[in-house]
Specification:
alpha/beta, single chain, four-stranded parallel β-sheet
C-alpha cells in the first residue's frame, strides 16, 4: 500500500482551501443573487443535524466554506473529526453574517455529506472484518473517486479507518487485463514492470484465472489481485496459497466484494479493494451522501426587533456513559431531596428517568401543579425556561434547577414585555389571557395564564361572562380558540417555530400514502393543518386520543419528542411524524424544538451536583405573576372535580 500520502493539518487546510475555492467559484460565480436580498448587516445562526448514524469527516472543508465568505464566522463542532455521530445528532453550529451562511451552506453540506459518506462506508467495512477472530484485514481504496476530489476522498477513507492504495497512475503499478494483453502475457508484463519502474511504491498484477495466478507467482509477483474470482473457484488454488505463505514475500487477493490475501514477513493477512465489484461494497463510486439538515433557529419576533436563538445541543452520551449518568442522577436526587419533572418534548432518557425516580413526565400545566404539591425542596425541570420560571413563581420557597438556562421558547422570545405592555395598553377594555409559553414579566401583566389543555375551557367561560379577550402570544392557538368558542379576541402575532412549519399539502400527501391513518394535531399548528385533524389537543389531549381512538396508525403533528411517550403507552400502534416543509426546504425546526433538545443527562447531573442553573425570578413580580397562574390552577381543579367554575371568573378588564 502507498505510504507517501501524509495528511498533516497544514496539508489538509491547503487541500480544503483549493477544493472549496473551486466549488464556490462553480456555485457562486459573480454573486449569490438570492442572498443579496438579505440585509448585509444581519447575522444568522444555524445548526447542522445528521439524520443517520455516520462517521464525520470533512471539518476542514466545512470551516473553509464558511470562513472563505465570512472570516469572522464562528463554528462549534459537537462531533470531532473521525467521530461517530448517532442519528438526529447536531454535528456543528455556525454563527456568521446571514449572506455568507446562506451562500456557503450548500457547498459546506456537499463536502460534509460526501466525505462523511465515504468515511462511514469505510468504517462499516473495517468493523465487519474486525469481527472475524484473528483477522488482520485492511480496507483499501482505489482511483474511482470523483474528478478533482481524489485527495479529499482518500483522506475520508483514512478518517474511516481504511488504507490508501496508490494515489494515481504515477506512484505505483497495477497491471490489468489490457496491460497483460498489450505486453504479451502475465510474465512479460511483470518483467517489463520490474525492469522499468523501480521508483514505484509497489507492483501489483490483476489476474482472472488460477492459471494466471500460477504464472504470476512463477514470475516473482509480490502482490496479486484476483479480479472478482468466484470463491469456490479460487479455493482450488489452495496449493498456491500455501506456496505464497512459504515464500513469505507475496501478497495476493480478491477484488470487489471478495477477500484479498497478502503476505508480509510470512504473516499473510486480508485486504479488500472495497470500492470495486458489487455496488453494495463501493467506497467511492456513487457513495450517496449522509443525510444532513441545516436547522435555522433564527427567529424574527412579531411586533419587535429580530433576535437570534443559539441552541446548544448536548453531545449524545455513549451507552456506558448513559447508564452511569442515570445512576448518578438517581443517587443525587435522593441525596438532595429533589425530584425531576420533564416535558413530553425532551429527550426520552429524561422522560424515562423522571418517571423511574418518582418524578413526572407531562405537559406544562401538570408539571407546575406537580412541582407545587410535591414534598421535594428541589425541582429539576427538564424543558424550557418559562417552565422553570412558572415552577419558581408558584413554589418560591423551593429551589428550581434547569439543565440549561438558555433553553428558551420562540413564543417567549417573540413576546417581550415592553412591546406586549404597549399592546395591552392599546386595548384597555379587554381581559388579558396569555399562554404559559411566556416570561414571568408577561405573566405578571396578564389576567389569566392558560395552557393548551385548559385554554378552551377558560376562554369559553370568559366569553360566557361577556368578556372580550386580548390573547398572546400564539396566533394559531388563539385563532383555534376563537373558532371553537366564538369569543371576541384580538391576537398578538406570535408562533411556535415547530408547529408553524407543519404544511397542509404535505400532510394531505402523507394521509394519501397511509389510508386509514388518524391525524393528531396540536392547536399551535396553522388552521389548514388543524382542519385535517381527526383529533386536536394539547400534548395530554393527543396522548388520550391515541389511547382511545379506534385506530392503529396515527400521523402526529407536534414536536417529535412526543413520539416516545406515544409509542411507550401504545405498543401495538404505529405513529408517523407529520411533515414540515421538508428537510431541504425552509423549515426552522423540522418537528423538533431546538431548545427542548438542549436538555441532557450530563447537565442534569451537573446542576444537581453543583446547584448551578438555579432559576431566579424577581421577587417584586412573583405575587402578580402568580395571581393569573393560581386562577388557572383553581379553575382546572374545579373543572376536574365537577365543581362550578362561574364564580372563578371575575370581571377584570385589562391587567
Amino acid at each position: 500500500m502507498s505510504d507517501s500520502l501524509v495528511f498533516t493539518p497544514s496539508f489538509l487546510q491547503e487541500l480544503a482551501h483549493q477544493d472549496v475555492a473551486r466549488a464556490l467559484l462553480e456555485d457562486v460565480g459573480a454573486g449569490d443573487l438570492t442572498a443579496a436580498l438579505v440585509d448585509p448587516s444581519r447575522r444568522a445562526r444555524a445548526r447542522i443535524l445528521v439524520r443517520e448514524a455516520a462517521v464525520i469527516a470533512g471539518s476542514d472543508w466545512v470551516t473553509e466554506a464558511f470562513t472563505a465568505l465570512d472570516p469572522d464566522a464562528e463554528i462549534r463542532w459537537h462531533v470531532p473529526e473521525g467521530g461517530q455521530a448517532q442519528a438526529d445528532t447536531v454535528v456543528l453550529e455556525v454563527q456568521a453574517h446571514a449572506r455568507a451562511l446562506l451562500t456557503a451552506e450548500r457547498t459546506a453540506l456537499n463536502f460534509l455529506q460526501l466525505l462523511s459518506a465515504v468515511a462511514t462506508r469505510t468504517a462499516q467495512f473495517v468493523a465487519a472484518v474486525a469481527e472475524v477472530p484473528g483477522n488482520r484485514a485492511q480496507i483499501v481504496d482505489t482511483r474511482k473517486t470523483l474528478p478533482g476530489l481524489r485527495m479529499a476522498q482518500k483522506y475520508a477513507v483514512r478518517a474511516g479507518g481504511g488504507t490508501n492504495h496508490r494515489i494515481g497512475l504515477f506512484d505505483a503499478v497495477l497491471i490489468k487485463e489490457n496491460h497483460i494483453a498489450a505486453a504479451g502475457g502475465v510474465s512479460a508484463a511483470l518483467r517489463l514492470a520490474q525492469a522499468q519502474t523501480a521508483q514505484a511504491a509497489f507492483i501489483e498484477i490483476e489476474v482472472e484465472t488460477l492459471a494466471q495466478l500460477r504464472e504470476a507467482l512463477d514470475a516473482g509477483a509480490r502482490m496479486v489481485l484476483l479480479d472478482n474470482m468466484d470463491l469456490a473457484y479460487a479455493a482450488r488454488g489452495s496449493d498456491d496459497q500455501r506456496r505464497a505463505r512459504r515464500l513469505g514475500s507475496l501478497g495476493w487477493g480478491q477484488s470487489g466484494h471478495r477477500a484479498c490475501h497478502r503476505c508480509h514477513r510470512r504473516r499473510p493477512h486480508l485486504y479488500w479493494h472495497a470500492d470495486q465489484g458489487h455496488t453494495r461494497d463501493r467506497l467511492f463510486h456513487a457513495p450517496g451522501g449522509i443525510a444532513m439538515t441545516v436547522i435555522d433557529v433564527e427567529y424574527e419576533q412579531p411586533a419587535c426587533s429580530t433576535r437570534h436563538a443559539w441552541a446548544r445541543v448536548p453531545v449524545e452520551p455513549s451507552p456506558s456513559e448513559r447508564v452511569s449518568l442515570k445512576e448518578k442522577i438517581a443517587r443525587l436526587l435522593k441525596e438532595k431531596n429533589a425530584v425531576m419533572v420533564s416535558h413530553y418534548y425532551v429527550h426520552p432518557d429524561l422522560q424515562d428517568l423522571a418517571e423511574a425516580t418518582g418524578g413526572l413526565v407531562s405537559d406544562s400545566l401538570e408539571m407546575a401543579r406537580f412541582g407545587r404539591d410535591h414534598a421535594a425542596q428541589t425541582l429539576v425541570v427538564s424543558g424550557v425556561r418559562f417552565m422553570g420560571e412558572t415552577a419558581k413563581i408558584i413554589s418560591p420557597e423551593k429551589r428550581v434547577l434547569m439543565p440549561d438556562l438558555d433553553a428558551t421558547c420562540s413564543l417567549d422570545l417573540g413576546c417581550p414585555i415592553t412591546e406586549f405592555s404597549a399592546f395591552c395598553d392599546a386595548h384597555p377594555d379587554r381581559t388579558v389571557v396569555v399562554y404559559a409559553n411566556t416570561s414571568a414579566a408577561v405573566k405578571a401583566r396578564a389576567d389569566w395564564v392558560v395552557t393548551s389543555s385548559c385554554a378552551l375551557d377558560i376562554v369559553r367561560a370568559l366569553k360566557d361572562a361577556g368578556q372580550k379577550i386580548l390573547w398572546a402570544p400564539d396566533k394559531h392557538l388563539g385563532s383555534y380558540i376563537q373558532r371553537e368558542t366564538g369569543a371576541d379576541m384580538v391576537f398578538w402575532q406570535g408562533a411556535c417555530i415547530v408547529h408553524d412549519e407543519f404544511k397542509a399539502f404535505e400532510l394531505q400527501a402523507l394521509k394519501a400514502e397511509n389510508p386509514g391513518a388518524k391525524v393528531l394535531v396540536h392547536p399551535e399548528s396553522p388552521a389548514d393543518v388543524v382542519a385535517l385533524a381527526d383529533a386536536v389537543g394539547s400534548t395530554s389531549g393527543i396522548l388520550k386520543a391515541a389511547q382511545t381512538m379506534d385506530a392503529t396508525l396515527f400521523i402526529v403533528a407536534t414536536d417529535s419528542g412526543m413520539l416516545h411517550k406515544l409509542r411507550t403507552l401504545n405498543p401495538g400502534k404505529t405513529f408517523v411524524e407529520a411533515p414540515t416543509a421538508g428537510n431541504s426546504a425552509t423549515c426552522k425546526s423540522c418537528a423538533q424544538c431546538p431548545w427542548m433538545a438542549m436538555n441532557g443527562l450530563a447537565d442534569v447531573a451537573r446542576v444537581l451536583e453543583t446547584g448551578a442553573n438555579a432559576i431566579e425570578v424577581d421577587a417584586a413580580i412573583i405575587p402578580r405573576a402568580r395571581l393569573p397562574i393560581d386562577r388557572m390552577l383553581a379553575f382546572t381543579a374545579a373543572l376536574k372535580n365537577g365543581q362550578p367554575v362561574g364564580g372563578l371568573i371575575p370581571h377584570l378588564g385589562a391587567a
